[in-house]
Fold these 3 entries.
Entry 1:
Amino acid sequence: MNDHSPTIDTTRAETFRHWTPVTIRFSDQDSMGHINNVSYAAFVEAGRNAFVTQYLKPDSHPGIDFVLARVTIDFRAEMHYPGTVDVGTCIKRIGNTSIVIGTGLFKDGRLHGTAESTNVFIDLATRKPCPVPADIRAELERQLSEAAGV
């Protein structure tokens, strides 16, 4: 990863340009009556996949996919049923074969969690890391500059 990447503040809704609304299910609650930590991870996954799959399409990049290598979640506030989680997603860093995605989980305009996910691009034939495709890199670099400028 580039050690000179800009600082991206995923605690602020203004940072994000890409949003994925996720409906909170009754079954997302735990015995304490708040949204379970596993559900937070599912919200992060929904945002991450919606973000990455808009760039990595099988017809434009045959034989390439991405895998999740690491995810960290900071639980910042309890969340309760019912409602919708607005999952903000942005690019935080771009490496040779991987990207780091930042996520903010907002409900009713309030921050409830942040996450950072590392995805590695892989060659499906060899199952080994491969370079981030040039066209995807260019778009993600544009978005990284935008998010840093907020």
Note: The mean pLDDT is 92.
Entry 2:
Amino acid sequence: MFEALIALALGAAVVAAAATGVMFQPGEWYRGLAKPRWTPPNILFPIAWTLLYAMMAIAAFRVAAGLAGGDLPEGAAPFAMAGLCLWATQITLNAMWSPIFFGARRGKAALICICALWTAILGTLICFAGADAVAAALLVPYLVWATYAGALNAAIVRMNPPAAFRAPAD
């Protein structure tokens, strides 16, 4: 029963983060921005994020359930607890990026957010590695994607004038 509650809580967290991506979509403004040639087609984003959110939830579940059930290796509990705190941080930062970039149209602020997100993902991965190697491995694609997304965010900011990032008129 406790594992079901853990799964429900983690599932709710990833659904909430994903919801911000649904609420704050690229739209015409984003289509009008200059972007590097290596920008992926828009259809790739929901596919990638669906897989990444599933892997994030599974990784956190493995660590949280192992911690709750006492199934972690000797000395792994501090890594698990720190990793879960960092996981909560990264999912919060993840949820913030779309509203900052697409909603508020603040490219530089979104870049700061994604840098903090990348750091939180790396910290989560390192801590999870001390508790559950499979959980850590599940986060590797997310770290790679966040690296790519951060580079894309930086390139878009660099390629567009500051006026391109003015918030929409109400």
Note: The domain at 2-165 is CATH 1.20.1260.100 (Ferritin).
Entry 3:
Amino acid sequence: MDPFAGILSEMDGRAKSAVTWPFCLGTVREAGSGRLVIRADGMDLDQDELYVAEYLTEGWTEQLTGLSWPLTASLPEATFHGTCEVIISGTRVTGTAQVTRPPETVEGVTTDEDSATHTARLAAGDPVLLLKSQDGQTYYVMCKFVRW
């Protein structure tokens, strides 16, 4: 029997008990309407114990760039109907009007940047990764997991 294997095993056991892993997995129990509850480390954590990554919050606005691309659209012939009113020699004349737009091709470029406001990104049942503070009183919601 290798005497060093026993020493290494003992050291490994002591190291595991001395160092705690700062991450934990949680499950969202409630989300929305100004309320967030996540079950992690055997506890239900709420807004008092949680900080959430901004991109996971409801109403977060993301600025999108690099959206520009050329486009070509084919517009079919269209007929528009309406009423019109003109004054001829001081007399008001009303009638109907019809305009036909011939088919045409329009070319242009889309906008380069825009913003998108997200609805709630967390929902009940979502698995999340949390980072615990050193004193274990605060948890930071880092990301949400989805099955690929």
Note: The two ends are 46 Å apart (CA to CA).
